[in-house]
Model the fold of this input.
Amino acid sequence: MRKYLARRALFALGTLVGVSLIIFVVLRVLPGDPLVAILGVEGQASMTPADRVRIMHDLGLSDPLPVQYVHWVRDIATGKLGKSFFRGDTVADLIFHRGPISAEIALLALVVSWLVGLPVGIVSAIKPNSWADNLARSAAILFIAIPGFWLGMLIVLGLLFWFGYKSPIIIVHFWQSPWQNLQIVIGPAIVLGLAQGAYIARMSRSCLLEVIREDYVRTARAKGAQERHVVLGHALPNALLPVITISGVLLGFVLGGSVAVEQAFGVPGLGRSLVTALIERDIIVVQNLVLLYAAIFVVVNFAVDLSYAWLDPRIRYA
Amino acid sequence: MSDQPTSGRGRLSRRTFLRAAGVTGAAALGPAVLRRRAEAQETPSPIRPDPAAKHGGTLRYGVLSAPAHFDVHQSGTVANIGAQSPMYDCLIRRDPRDGQSVIPDLAWKWDISPDGKKYTFYLRKGVKFHDGADFTAEDVKATYERIVRPPKGVVIPRSSLFTTVGDIVVLDPHRIEFRLTEPRPRAFMLGSFASGWNIIVRKKSLDDNQGNLRQVMNYPGTGPFKHVSRQDKEVWIMERNANYWNKGLPYLDRLEVYHLAPFSPELGSSFLAGKIDYARLLDPVSWRKAKEMPNVTAVAFNQSVIQAFWMNMKKKPLADPRVRRAIHLAMDRPTLVEVVKDTAPMQIGGFVYPFHEMSTPKAELVKRLGYQTDIKPAVQEARRLMKEAGYGQGIKGLDFVVRDIQTFKLWAVAIQAMLKEHINIECNLRTVQTSVWFDEAAAGHFDLAISAIVSSLMDPSDYFTAWYGQYGPQNYSGWNNEQFQALAKQIERELDDSKRKAMVRKAEDILEQDPPLIPIAYEQIYDAYYNKVKGQNPSTFFGIYDVCRWDNVWLAQS
Done:
């Protein structure tokens, strides 16, 4: 087990180093001048070449690329993750302030996806090709097909024009006001959760359909167990394994999707910060947030792999 | 029974005494009073507290307020001035009641020498910075030395307004003199001093930070509001400066500036849902919706921006003035304004701000080729010019660089179609992110390009140099016309307004025939506020950078 963990940790580290190298190089190869965002159009236009050299030096952008990369790694090691080009805030501060909102949205979205997806999948599986199954499958395809940011905008506009409602415009953390915090995160979580719930429903339906035809399920029924007990007690636990696997992958989609959905809902989370940083060419913020997203993805998938052994006694790590 | 005191005949009553004393005093002091009146006429009064105004309350203001840095002097965006302006004062300022007149601020009075080469400002005494330090002429000198001659690594877009400022001399702690190397029109110079960007900062703040305040969030000002807290890209909170020099102001206890991007759905929805009291730069759809609300005032005013189209003079067909004039005439401007009406409000104009007193009046402009509603005559002339220039068959394969902003993307498609249909010019659209656009434009990596540029003043002498000057920082076309450059220099120096006006019209004629850029439209600003917000009327403002201090604004219901 230890050997397995060490090997997986090594793989995870390699993946993160690879991601960091790719994002580092890509951001420096892409065209675009951060000084336009820093000094404004007029400021940038009236800047002399000497000013440019000086400011680029102050920002650390005139160092050779390997030196810049080493500086970044050093910043990661110190936990500050570097400073934004613009206002001098550290990226760590940004993550501590905005991260909880994005994390809440992601976790709540996962909960919504399970709460919606699993019952729908079960109903579809136990009554295949019924009207309920057809309705659930149609709804699932619909929610997979609809872009989250579009649905988000519809919800925002609907609430505004019908009820004159708009969620709080600045971050309110859960510990400051749970009610206001819920108003911020619930919309994006539902939109993201419905899309992921559609995947969960389809996956749980197909897995359950397969398991329900197994001999041990038939045996349970033959023993006179109630149908509810047969499905929930015998079939479902064994059908859940692929669903858990896909949930890990879906968390990645939730993180990716949150960038657009936070924008649509106007939620000042990390996803929105990433979009703004990209527009501003604030490469220090972009590279750290992308690395953070990659790290979360790697860690979640690692945790999902480990959970197999706990969920299925047949699985052992060597 | 009257309670007036009675007096006997021959006795001097109190009333008679006072009347006599008044007449005598007036006779003695008459010349002095008249002199003072003359001074008062020259130097208008500052904002005075309104006795009807209520004190207290919090104003929730929605505007772009996530600055890339904190140095107002080095900035050119509302992201700085929108949030930081209430914490600072200027030497003199634009009157918030009309946005145009120049009134005293930290200088209670000023003198201009008869030859127009000395501007002496008399500074208020007893003014304190928010950190408790006294405000003196040394702070003004340090501020303006920096603006006029920025230190290394500091870039101030408005330095060009003060190119004629030579020495800045502190005469005493409350008197400072600006000595010009040559005179400039008074309106131009006073307008430059009154620009909202030229906030007065402490000399010590500059000294402590090597003249660069980009990463200093809370450097002390003397303004009506003091910094309380700031959450990046969310809100900047300020409180009333109880020691403000203008006693009785500000009225508000607290100012909350929310970061809400211009024309964004968040800004519109936050205002319509009542999350903010005042919204700046609303999108047209939300603005129209707000206008229908009974408890809301929705206003439109002019912005200090031109939406323009550049043609690279280094490319052979575009170096020919006839081709550029043909492109100018091929633009169907009324349609272009219509195309973006739900994205950003626009108005038609020529090469000078269409609302400026020196520009060709609108009624006259819309009769000119290129500005008419019926574009057939303009297109006919454009085709003739193309033929005369040897491009009767059109031009193919031009690279059209488009800034990645909704307005420009919509326009680019329309312009591409107009150029093809009217004068057979074919171009390929290349949409790039804003910072890339300015890189490409500055490097001349384009044939055609579309974007927007800003000026500090409405006075043509400001932007004639920046936009059309041979080495102007925003002359992306690389255009030069010796006749125009000579005329622009004359306009800069001419002190007589009527002569300046005639010269500006002449310059317009040159630009019409040999366009350095094509004016597409001039932007308008859409603001809206709930009627409980009093004391603010931006309808006559020019731009959003000069008047945003909120010192004279109050809330009817606190």
Observations:
- Chain A touches chain B through 47 residues (CB under 8 Å).
- The mean pLDDT of chain A is 85.
- The radius of gyration of chain A is 24 Å.
- Residues 57 and 63 of chain A are 7 Å apart (CA to CA).
